[in-house]
Specification:
Largest sheet: 2 strands, antiparallel
Strand order of the largest sheet: 1-2
Radius of gyration: 14 Å
Strand content: 5-15%
Number of helices: 6
Helix content: 40-55%
Shape: elongated
Number of strands: 4
Structural class: mainly alpha
Length: 106
C-alpha cells in the first residue's frame, strides 16, 4: 500500500501514520483511534484500519498473528522471526514493527 495513501479522510490520517502508531504499540482499532484520530468521525475507514492492523509484512504477506505466535514460541530477534514467518526478509520496512512486537510480546 502506498505510504502516502490517506486511509481516514475525515481526520487526514495516512497509511504511514497508522503504521507508526503500530510501531509505537497500537494493536487494536481503539488504540489506533486514540493515537491517530483515525476512525473517530464517520467510521468509514475502520475496515481498512483492521486490514492494516492484521498485516506486518506486505512483501511476504505475513500477518500480525503469525509474528506474535512466532515470538510466543521463542523467536526473540527480528532475524528469528524472519526465519519462521518470512517477515523482514525482503525489503526490511517492517523491521521496526517486528522489533516492537518482540519487545511487547503482542
Amino acid at each position: 500500500m502506498a505510504g502516502n495513501k490517506i486511509v481516514c479522510h475525515c481526520k487526514n490520517v495516512s497509511y504511514i501514520d497508522i503504521r507508526k502508531a503500530m510501531i509505537a504499540g497500537a494493536r487494536t482499532v481503539e488504540e489506533i483511534k486514540e493515537m491517530t484520530g483515525a476512525g473517530t468521525a464517520c467510521g468509514g475507514c475502520v475496515k481498512e484500519i483492521e486490514k492494516i492492523l492484521a498485516s506486518v509484512c506486505g512483501c511476504k504477506g505475513t500477518s500480525l498473528e503469525s509474528v506474535v505466535e512466532a515470538v510466543k514460541n521463542g523467536a526473540d530477534t527480528v532475524e528469528k522471526v524472519g526465519e519462521v514467518t518470512g517477515a523482514c526478509t525482503q525489503c526490511g520496512r517492517c523491521k521496526a514493527l517486528v522489533q516492537n512486537i518482540i519487545e511487547l510480546k503482542r
